[in-house]
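Table 4 source record.
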Amino acid sequence: QHLASKGYVVVSVDNRGTGARGEEFKKMTYLELGKYETIDQIEAAKYLGTQSYIDKDRIGIFGWSYGGYMTSWAVTQTNRFRAASMGAGLTNLVSMSMTSDIRRYLVEHLGGYYWDDMDAYRKSSAMHHIENVVTPTQVIHGQQDLRVPTSQGQEFYNALKYRGVDTEMILYPRTPHGPQEPKFLMDVSPRILTWFNKYR
């Protein structure tokens, strides 16, 4: 709503893997995290680019939690997006698998623990494709996030810095898997807006 109020067109894609369209739709990403969701995101961007009210060269991507994961994954797979903002995103599924407070989550999506199939975890981790990123990417994370540990954001941010990709990291103190304190709730949307305005 904040971005829309400032003149941005905001689109929420019901990509494969969500529970909105039944079990079969939800299971489409099993063993293939990131792959089909990103195809759906790119197709949405392509469609938007055909609309007269959209500048196809100024489309951004952002999300929080799993949306943050999709954001980090998307920028390793395409340079279609002008800028990106990743909130509390999963970036390294190997390290995430033993540090998150929902360790079974990845086991259920990838068919086992990482030691059972390291390739499955690596191929779906943005960190293992970091060399492809050229999209300026903002990283936002809570310092007390147990769901997606802070190190997930730090890994991605540091790698982008080392690689010379424009980035910034906002780390909210005392914050779990999303801002809760009023001053942080009031801060996060303007931060995202400022990042996108930089590339508008």
